[in-house]
Structures are given as structure tokens and as C-alpha cells.
Design brief:
By secondary structure, this protein is of the alpha+beta class. Helices cover about 25% and strands about 35% of the residues. The protein has five helices and ten strands; from the N terminus they run αβααββββββαββαβ. A six-stranded mixed beta sheet has the order 2-1-3-4-5-6, covered by helices on one side. Strand 4 and strand 5 form a beta hairpin. Helix 1 runs parallel beside helix 2. The protein starts with 17 loop residues before the first helix and ends with a strand. The model has no long low-confidence stretch (mean pLDDT about 90).
């Protein structure tokens, strides 16, 4: 049933809660994995927030799933059981917060990681039964999780999308989805590009060299 009882080293889950938690655990792990990858090798603190329907659940397993995802880019064999202890033993701060209402979505999970004194954040929600990324760096967007996602933090200036498409096309990489978010016109923006193959290092370097690009992963 997915229930866990009388465990010494992992949060208990009732048979009633198990099916409710499953989609949120999947979302939490995917968001953690995203946050872990954009932390570029390590973070000193992690904050996990739950809003709306997600806040009303047993969030301990969800926190464990998020932490496991965040650590996986640097520790392949980490899991929900080992992740909290690994975090603690490495002196990484963990904060969990709940908010009963969610301004835009019925449910939302937000993960923030502290890297070199600054925070990087991503938020997601279950929309129509599908886990989605709905916010990055405070910028709203609507993107499905995919095996390969190109994340670009850029300046919102003309020519960027065309240049990016040209570079990916030259590398033989097909674009499956293109999701954009921005602060205001002409300021900072985010592109989450669903692609059908991994991006070679030389292609990443070419994208990074575009004048509008601040960060690419």
C-alpha cells in the first residue's frame, strides 16, 4: 500500500496518506533534483516550503524526498532514508515552512538552496495531476519535467530565442518545448527548454557566450 510503520530511520506513512503523498513526493524529488543541479556542486542551506493542499499533508516524507533529490547530483546512491542524515552530518542547514493558503495554485512546493551567500529557488505544483515547474527565481512559468531540460537565465532582449534555436539546431538537438518567464520587459528572464538529447559541453559554451546569457545549465 505504500504505508510505512514502526520504522527507525524514516518518517512513518499511513495507508490512508500513502496515495495522497505519492504525487507530491514525486514533485518534491524532481524539484530537489533541479535545485541540486543548479547549485553547481554544493549548497550550505536548504529551505523547503509547502503551500495550500501540500501544507495539509504529512510533509516529513516530502522533505526527505526533496533533500534526496537535491543531494543526488553529487551523491548517486542517496535516498529518502539516508538524505536527512547526510545533510546533517555535512553541516547543511534545513528549514521547513508551511503556508495554508497558496496565492496562485491549489498546492505548491518551493525549494531554495543557498550557494555562495545567495539563494537559488524553484517552485512546482501538481496541475491536472501532472507535476510542473511553475516558478524559477521568482519568475512565473509553466513547464513539464522532462528527461532533458536546458535552463537558461538571460536578459530579455530581442534575438535571444533565435540565436539559441540556431545553436541547438546546428548541434542537431531538437526542441520539444519552450517555456519562458521574465520579471519585466527588457530585464532578467528565464528559459526552460525541453530538448530530446543531452547538450555537449562545446554547445553549452556556445550558448553561454551569447551576449544575453547570464547562466546556462
Amino acid at each position: 500500500t505504500g504505508a510505512i510503520s514502526n520504522a527507525l530511520n524514516t518518517p512513518s506513512i499511513s495507508a490512508e496518506d500513502a496515495p495522497k503523498l505519492k504525487p507530491y513526493a514525486d514533485l518534491a524529488e524532481k524539484l530537489g533534483l533541479f535545485a541540486g543541479q543548479i547549485s553547481d556542486g554544493g549548497f550550505t542551506d536548504i529551505e523547503i516550503g509547502f503551500e495550500g493542499e501540500a501544507a495539509a499533508l504529512n510533509t516529513k516524507p516530502l522533505t526527505a524526498a526533496a533533500v534526496a533529490g537535491a543531494l543526488r547530483p553529487i551523491m548517486n546512491d542517496v535516498n529518502m532514508v539516508s538524505a536527512p542524515e547526510i545533510l546533517k552530518s555535512n553541516g547543511v542547514g534545513l528549514t521547513e515552512a508551511k503556508r495554508v493558503d497558496s496565492p496562485v495554485y491549489d498546492n505548491l512546493i518551493r525549494i531554495r538552496v543557498k550557494v555562495g551567500g545567495s539563494w537559488r529557488d524553484v517552485a512546482g505544483a501538481i496541475v491536472g495531476g501532472i507535476p510542473k515547474i511553475v516558478e524559477v527565481k521568482g519568475m512565473a512559468l509553466d513547464a513539464k519535467f522532462r528527461p532533458h531540460i536546458l535552463y537558461v537565465n538571460n536578459l530579455d532582449k530581442p534575438g535571444f530565442i533565435g540565436s539559441l534555436g540556431t545553436i541547438l539546431g546546428k548541434a542537431g538537438i531538437n526542441i520539444a518545448a519552450f517555456n519562458l518567464g521574465r520579471e519585466v520587459e527588457g530585464a532578467e528572464a528565464i528559459a526552460l527548454v525541453g530538448i530530446d538529447a543531452d547538450v555537449p559541453d562545446d554547445t553549452l559554451e556556445e550558448i553561454c557566450a551569447l551576449e544575453q546569457v547570464r547562466y546556462v545549465k
